[in-house]
Specification:
This protein has about 200 residues and is mainly beta. It is built from 2 helices and 12 strands.
Length: about 200
């Protein structure tokens, strides 16, 4: 004796078939695939905000810092290198990667500090591309020229003497306080004058 479906079951079956046909419900075979779909990553990768010294700057051997827009994973320091090699250590504190040299950089040598894409944020998001800055080892302070030039004659006694160096001469105080600093130049025979530092110039 065969069992007949009740009118309610037949109506419910018809509604389900119609929903699949017009796309309101996916076929049953597709449901496991939809359930297993990976979650989309929403966190952004770390980005460099600033470095000190700045990229391309003269480097006197002070610690180098790279500041990012979010905290880094503690092991990110393991993926930082300096080329050519220079004794020192990388460390991470929150959003700052620091290289502390244990030796002076070679004068005129160009160094590249690189953090590769294995480094991650504290949230576990890797860098989208390597971060790199270049620094140049500072050369000794040298005089490159003078105005008037060495050996000049018939110079006005009131003319300004300018000494030009190979890199900026940093005044330790403001212009108004420079009169209280020791005089860095000596003139023989002695004359009454003062020196003033202006960028790469020393004016007398």
């Amino acid at each position: 004796m065969s069992l007949k479906r009740s009118p309610i079951i037949r109506i419910f079956t018809f509604i389900l078939l119609a929903a699949v046909t017009i796309g309101l419900l996916p076929p049953a075979a597709h449901l496991p695939h939809l359930a297993a779909a990976p979650r989309r990553q929403t966190a952004a990768p770390p980005g460099l905000l600033a470095s000190s010294p700045t990229d391309g700057a003269v480097w006197n051997g002070e610690p180098v810092t790279l500041t990012f827009d979010q905290p880094l994973a503690a092991d990110s320091a393991d993926f930082a290198v300096i080329n050519p090699a220079l004794d020192g250590a990388f460390s991470v504190a929150e959003a700052v990667l620091t290289f502390t040299p244990a030796a002076k950089p070679e004068p005129g040598q160009r160094y590249r500090i690189t953090l590769d894409t294995r480094a991650q944020s504290a949230a576990g998001v890797a860098l989208s591309s390597s971060v790199e800055i270049a620094l140049v080892g500072a050369t000794p302070l040298q005089v490159t020229s003078t105005q008037p030039s060495d050996g000049s004659g018939d110079i006005d006694a009131t003319a300004e003497i300018v000494v030009i160096f190979n890199r900026p001469v940093v005044a330790l105080v403001g212009v108004g306080a420079q009169a209280d600093l020791p005089n860095p130049l000596q003139i023989e025979p002695a004359v009454e004058a003062r020196a003033m530092a202006q960028h790469q110039h020393l004016c007398f």
